[in-house]
Amino acid sequence: MSNATKKNGSKKSLSKPADGDVVSLATIEKENRQPKKPKGKKAATAKATPKPKAPAKHKPLSCLGAAVEVLKANKEPMACKAMIDAMSAAKLWVSDAPTPAATLYSAILREIQKKGNDARFKKTERGHFALNA
Length: 133
Description:
The chain has helices spanning 25-33, 63-74, 80-89, 100-115, and strands at 78-79, 121-125, 128-131. It has 133 residues and is mainly alpha-helical. A 3-stranded antiparallel sheet has the order 1-3-2. The longest helix has 16 residues, at 100-115.
């Protein structure tokens, strides 16, 4: 017979080791299966209370967004250079690039080409744009 069985055929309890330094595998597995208690202050509460959302920060306007605002205020077609000047005067958008008007011009044309009739802008004449109503 094996060491784990008595003479009458029943198994010995493996949870209590015979020697103080020896720990049985059953004890180790039992300890590993038990969920560990969380540490810290949050461990005491059953459910963590959700944090309130921070108020939405004001996102600065893009160059195209600022151009829309300028064209809404002016209500007439404008050249890109005039739009850039109006944007910087109203402090909607400022750039230290050497040619922001050329950048705005190409961005407006790119939006018109990509979105077609759904674009925010329409070209009225050479170099002039208005809002697409």
